[in-house]
Amino acid sequence: MYLIKESVTRLNQHLLIKGQDVTFRINYWGIDSKLTYNPVHRHSSFEICYVLKGDGTYLDDGVIYPLTSGMLFVSRPGIDHQIRSEKGLFLLFVCFEVDEGKSTRRYNELFQLLAQHEQVVIHEGNTSPAVTLWKSLLVPEEKRWALAPECIPQLAHALLVSFLPLFLPLNDSIKRNSDTQSMVLQQAKSFIIDNLDKELSLEMVAQYLNVSTRHLSRLFSSGIHENFVGFIRKERVKQATYLLKSTDLSIKEIADATGFKSVHYFTRVLKQEIGLPPGRFRKDFHLSYNF
Fold first, then answer.
1. pLDDT at position 264, please?
2. How far are the Cα atoms of 104, 155, 177, 183, 221 from residue 187, in angstroms, in the given order?
């Protein structure tokens, strides 16, 4: 049907998907031909999965959903979730986030609304444009029918945007999401992401936004289910791992660019968050996605 290793390798060469109105940072593209179990966990990004074959269950924020072939489901940032299957699921998945500094206000608001929306499972997704686009990005067993490499970024961008109308009722979404609190939270997140190389504190960001530290702290805990310090730490780790995967910058340069005080501290935090020091992470990533 599809060549798994070749498909994953090709897709993971595209970790920054640029567009005129919205740009995405990809944490990883993946395929698992027989997933039976993963522990209860959470992401700070979106992860969207498509069930190509198999049956199982998906636990999301305490609710269990049955999974069957043709279904899509979204794991929202900060929400505990788990996948189980007795015989194994053939899954396509992509973990991504919006680059808020390079995207329009409208798309930032839409994806923020998606993070809060309660519809997490789509039945009968086989005929959806999203699934058609996703399958077109894979390498078929008959390699001559594989998509030309130069077409991948544009179609990958179309795929990620197509998730919005799939999971979200767009007709009234902007109005519901344009309240003051969501805008302040988004401004805070954008400011943090744009200034990761600086010393960031709750007082500094609150002063920049002209709100109280108590109010800003509450926005983080209620809006993204994470505290202020935890959000900064995860954003620094995200940006650092992205730079390790996609650039030749030295580990010291990456530590400086992402606000870690020293290479030693950078190494300690990365080992705590992903289980590997920076050099080993970079080496393992390139080994995994090279033929």
1. 95
2. 12, 29, 14, 6, 15
CB atoms within 10 A of CB 273: 15
If one counts the domains in the chain, the total is 2
Q: How many residues would you count in the chain?
A: 291
Q: Which long-range contacts (CB under 8 A, 24 or more apart) does 256-262 make?
A: 256/197, 257/196, 257/197, 258/196, 258/197, 259/196, 259/197, 259/198, 259/199, 259/200, 259/232, 260/236
My answer on whether 229 and 191 are in the same domain is: yes
The range of the structural domain enclosing residue 16 comes to: 4-171
Q: From start to end of 103-221, where are the E strands?
A: 121-122
The domain boundary, picked from 112, 136, 171, lies at 171
Query: Can you tell me the distance from the alpha carbon of 266 to that of 271, in angstroms, rounded to the nearest whole number?
Result: 9
* Packed helices 152-167 and 105-116: angle between N→C axes, nearest 10 degrees: 50
Q: What is the CATH number of the domain that holds 256?
A: 1.10.10.60
pLDDT at 177: 46
How would you label 29-60 residue by residue, b for 16+ Cβ within 10 Å and e otherwise?
bbbbeebeeeeeebbbbbbbbbbbebebebeb
- If you ran DSSP here, which 8-state letter would residue 2 be given? B
Mean pLDDT in order along the chain per 10 residues (291 residues): 93 94 95 95 94 96 94 94 96 95 88 87 92 96 92 96 88 49 82 92 91 86 80 93 92 94 93 91 76 44
Closest listed residue to residue 58, CA positions, set 123, 14, 146, 5: 123
